[in-house]
């Protein structure tokens, strides 16, 4: 049985399911955001500073550092190199020509960083509130 590991300063939002087939490993890197109702099904590795959008599904894959997988997308059975952008509703798999995928734009990278930063700020705020009571 392999562990499920979530890196520092990553956020797992409401309704996310993380589990694995036959106890395979699932790792989520640092400063990554897994948005509402996504499914991360191992074996799976998500790099650092990755954004996974609402309702997306990852299965038997690797998502490299700095990738953006937008809402309702599927990444199944392939390794997505660092810095790639999967658009909303797109499905990529072992036969996908990854050279056709766009690289993450500056605005998409900023959005990902803002989501991660906002969630870190929320934790700080909750901790400050806790100390008031």
Folded structure, characterized:
GO terms for molecular function: transferase activity. This is Carbonic anhydrase or acetyltransferase, isoleucine patch superfamily. It comes from Pseudomonas borbori. Pfam families: Hexapep. Keywords: Transferase. The longest helix is centred in the last third of the chain and has 27 residues, at 106-132. The radius of gyration is 15 Å and the shape is globular. The protein is built from one helix and 13 strands. The N and C termini lie far apart (40 Å). It has one domain (4-132): Hexapeptide repeat proteins (UDP N-Acetylglucosamine Acyltransferase, domain 1), CATH 2.160.10. Strands 1, 3, 4, 6, 8, 10, 11 and 13 form an eight-stranded parallel sheet that branches. Strands 2-5-7-9-12 form a five-stranded parallel sheet. It is of the alpha/beta class and 133 residues long.
Feature tags:
single chain, 133 residues, alpha/beta, UDP N-Acetylglucosamine Acyltransferase, domain 1, eight-stranded parallel β-sheet, five-stranded parallel β-sheet, 1 helix, globular
Termini Cα gap: 40 Å
CATH domain class name: Mainly Beta
Percent of residues in helical segments? Answer: 10-25%
Low-pLDDT segments: none
Full CATH superfamily name: Hexapeptide repeat proteins
Q: Helix and strand string, N-terminal first?
A: EEEEEEEEEEEEEH
> What proportion strand?
25-35%
Radius of gyration: 15 Å
The biggest beta sheet reads: 8 strands, parallel
Mean pLDDT: 93
- Give me the number of helical elements: 1
Supply the CATH architecture: 3 Solenoid
Inertia-based shape: globular
- SSE-based structural type: alpha/beta
How many beta-strand elements? Answer: 13
What CATH calls the topology is: UDP N-Acetylglucosamine Acyltransferase, domain 1
Total separate domains: 1
